[in-house]
Specification:
The structure is a homodimer.
Chain A (H helix, E strand, L loop, with lengths): L12 H14 L8 E2 L1 H8 L3 H13 L3 E3 L5 E3 L4 H25 L2 H19 L4 H19 L2 H22 L4 H20 L2 H21 L4
Helix pairs in contact in A: 1-3, 2-3, 4-6, 4-7, 4-8, 4-9, 5-6, 5-8, 6-7, 8-9
Chain A binds a DNA duplex (30 and 30 nucleotides) through α3.
Protein name (chains A, B): GntR family transcriptional regulator
Pfam family, one (chains A, B): GntR
InterPro entries (chains A, B): GntR_C, TF_FadR/GntR_C, Tscrpt_reg_HTH_GntR, WH-like_DNA-bd_sf, WH_DNA-bd_sf
Chain lengths: ~220, ~220
DNA sequence: TGATGTTCTAATGTTGACATTGAGACATCG
DNA sequence: CGATGTCTCAATGTCAACATTAGAACATCA
């Protein structure tokens, strides 16, 4: 159905622990600034501290948590500078990803982008579940990075992806009208230009897409 | 002398193990494709397997080694695609780093760039130790990323820095004339434009600087 | 009283032992 | 003889006990 047996890679407990903790952070169970104690998590997840430790190291690579020598691990908090840094870097990465994908994307991959835009539109027209809308937004960009086919670029994207997810969800708590009003159109335009746009126009749009998101987010933040 | 006690952070054994293994890889002790066995390293470094394991995970973040479920860790190979990926991403990162540093760099940081260029020139005129020349090249770009002051951007740079180091050293074994002929001038021009260039010219030069390196490296590689 | 030194403790850092697995050697069958 | 199944073992994955440390509570002294 979904895909022709790409692989069914058995992963370790560390990966699963990382997935669980990441989900808990994104769901709000661990708010920004919360301390993540290894013993506590190990007991709750029913794995050893070593595995939890390895999983937390993974989340640190993703920038979702911060840790220090003998000082434990805590969820990052969302300062204006953090937002500035992540969105600035993301603009540069997206610029490269979109211009690359413009050359390398297969028809199937482009169709998948259209499908995701359609899903967004349906979500807006329907229940408008903000969490799902944000997930679709990120999935859209995941697909672009996949289509670009540059492993290192995808790794760099993964290193800010979770932070981005956290930022967008955080904003969801405080009014999301502007986002909802533009998210479908902006992504539809991106998908269209990936098919038929010239490189420079696409590069500019990709940067503006991110810049608009950054300004919109910062406007509601300076707390 | 050096700096006014910024900090003397005690690090863990894992970090030291990572440093040692990284140095061993870059020195050629572990050639591309070599297997890094945890027990072996643990015995040789006189630390536990756990610490070695954590250190190897760190090197994996840097892209210097690859690992899989129950399949051990090996030094990455240097294929044409690897070079293509790393240099393409680096061009995008450097573009952002230089244009940002143009706004944020302090006079002291700019002076340090000049100093590094002078060191390169001295090295060329003198013994022309290739390893040291490559180290200066990378230190130059380290300084630019530091001056840009974007933590996430610096993290993304670190994720390809060691690979880049490995690539450049690998090429050093097979003729380095073109590199030696241009490295000083190119970096001097970059330093100059960081002081007085306009944004667009600087962005273009930063990309060309990397693109030139990539082509030069790929030319001598397809083995 | 405020600054400095000390003690205590909860949490992380580190380790060696045990469990599991992947890949090749070997045997078996068509 | 080639393909397939089984076995073996070295290497990794996991775990629980022990060692170390950062920070806070407390005591001490000018």
């Amino acid at each position: 159905m979904s895909s022709a047996l790409p692989k069914a890679p058995r992963r370790g407990l560390a990966d699963e622990a990382a997935d669980l903790v990441r989900a808990a952070i994104l769901s709000g169970h661990f708010p920004p600034g919360a301390a993540l104690r290894e013993v506590e998590l190990a007991a709750h997840l029913d794995v050893s501290r070593g595995s939890v430790r390895e999983g937390l190291a993974q989340l640190e690579r993703e920038g979702l948590v911060r840790g220090g020598w003998h000082r434990g691990t805590t969820v990052i908090d969302v300062t204006a500078q953090d937002v500035e840094e992540v969105y600035t870097l993301r603009a540069a990465l997206d610029r490269l990803a979109t211009t690359t994908a413009r050359r390398t994307a297969t028809p199937e991959q482009l169709s998948r982008l259209d499908q995701l835009v359609a899903d967004m539109a349906a979500e807006i027209a329907g229940t408008a579940d903000t969490r799902r809308l944000v997930a679709l937004d990120i999935a859209f960009h995941d697909q672009i990075y996949t289509a670009a086919g540059n492993g290192r670029l995808t790794t760099a994207w993964r290193a800010i992806r979770s932070q981005l997810h956290l930022f967008q969800l955080r904003r969801a708590d405080a009014g999301y009208d502007h986002y909802r009003a533009r998210v479908v159109d902006e992504h539809r335009e991106l998908a269209a230009l990936l098919r038929s746009g010239d490189r420079r126009t696409l590069a500019r749009l990709a940067e503006e897409h991110v810049d608009s998101a950054r300004r919109s987010l910062l406007a509601g933040l300076p707390d």
